[in-house]
Amino acid sequence: MSRVTRRAFTVAALSTLAITQAAAAAPAAPQPPGASRARRPRAAADEMRGMWLATVTNRDWPSRTGLSAARQRGELTALLDAAVRRRLNTVIFQVRPTADALWPSPYEPWSQWLTGTQGKDPGWDPLGTAVEEAHARGLKLHAWLNPYRVALHADPSRLVASHPARRHPDWVVPYGGKLYYNPGLPEVRAFVQQAMSDAVRRYPVDGVHFDDYFYPYPEAGRSFDDDAAYARHGGAFASRAAWRRDNIDRLVRETAAGIQRLRPGTQFGISPFGVWRNASTDTRGSDTKAGVETYDDLYADTRKWVREGWIDYIVPQLYWSVGQPAADYAKLVPWWARVARGSRTKLYVGEALYKAGDATQGAAWRDPDELSRHLALAEKYPEVRGHVFFAAKDVAADPSGAMARVVADHYRQPANAPR
């Protein structure tokens, strides 16, 4: 989802792709001129309508560092109000963007994206407030946590002195100008689960959410230096790639089990990059020509997690237009529907609202109807249980009118999130 935010997340991947990457009483949204009238083959009573709310680099919130607690709180509740106006029902709030916290964590420092200084108390509790204010508006609140990213720079001395990455420098791998925890170390896996589970223990969150970062996106000419960890822990595996995938599988399974121990019924979901493998690599893969494949490049076997039922929901980031040559939305939706068919894992689709109206994204995204067509296409597949939009600032401002058209065509009535 910036450029260095969650979309620097996917923008970083797209650069390696073969492409450039309410309430019930609310009045009905007006039908924009020329908007398509979408069919609704199933009732809207059980449908994910979500938005990501990104905090890394102040992508969506707060608008800048150093604002007063009152101003930060006001901006946050305004975004929740925007979700209600658009008849959404779920907010996925990024509360651990870079091995830090947007709550008073005993394990990790306060996030720098609040005050501008890592470790500085902002004078209030953003996650606690977000849960309370979301629930007051009838919204579900999912805590979005990034497991392994430590910093968007490669200088450990810039981290606050008490940071776990400074106390345990052997846990950290510099790669591509950033710092990451090493997923191959069991002690790292145990620590990040402990740090993340603190949010579940403290707050009645409705879900826990991981994005697309596991092992980092590959960069040409660079290798992720986990030689020592592989020598110590990888002997039982046929290859380093198989060992890396097992490390991520363990994180997913153990996190799911930990959430249910702490707060039974809390959902656990993941929003991976949208291509598991190309069919040219694996006959089970999608009819795509992506330059990044999560199985091979991020060591995330996203298809397996769905088929095995390890996660409650998956939100593949299908940030391409209908007809896009390298990764066609119209081909990826049915592929993911087949993957989810017969599993316990609910399928939602991640939508690139941030691209709508952006002249640099190609002709399709200049058409305000593009996203509405996505939802109409997805309605043909009963496995698709809803959509999540990147991201909150775009939901609120909607400069191209694309979100208004989605609401007019598809969200005329409120809907409950799937259970």
What does this structure look like?
With about 425 residues, the chain is an alpha/beta fold. It has a single domain, classed as Glycosidases (TIM Barrel, Alpha-Beta Barrel). It contains 14 helices and 11 strands. The chain has helices spanning about 5-15, 70-85, 110-115, 125-135, 165, 185-200, 225-235, 240-260, 295-300, 300-305, 330-340, 370-380, 390-395, 400-410, and strands spanning about 50-55, 90-95, 140-145, 150, 170-175, 180, 205-210, 265-270, 315, 345-350, 385-390. The protein has an 8-stranded parallel β-barrel with strand order 1-2-3-7-8-9-10-11, surrounded by 6 helices. A 3-stranded antiparallel sheet has the order 4-6-5, with no helix packed on it. β10 (about 345-350), α12 and β11 form a beta-alpha-beta unit. α6 runs parallel beside α8. The longest helix has 23 residues, at about 240-260. The radius of gyration is 20 Å and the shape is globular.
The domain tally reads 1
Q: Tell me the CATH architecture.
A: Alpha-Beta Barrel
Which structural class should the secondary elements be placed in? Answer: alpha/beta
CATH topology: TIM Barrel
Oligomer: single chain
Q: Strand arrangement, largest sheet?
A: 1-2-3-7-8-9-10-11
Strands, total number: 11
- Spell out the CATH superfamily: Glycosidases
CATH class: Alpha Beta
Low-pLDDT stretches: 1-43
Strand % is 5-15%
Distance between the termini: 25 Å
Region (Disordered): 24-44
Keywords: Signal
Signal peptide: 1-24
Organism: Streptomyces spiralis
Compact description:
The protein has helices at residues 6-16, 69-85, 112-115, 126-136, 164-167, 186-202, 227-233, 240-262, 294-298, 302-307, 329-340, 370-378, 392-397, 402-410; strands at residues 48-53, 90-96, 140-145, 149-151, 172-175, 178-181, 207-210, 267-270, 313-314, 346-351, 384-390. It is an alpha/beta fold and 419 residues long. It has a single domain, classed as Glycosidases (TIM Barrel, Alpha-Beta Barrel).
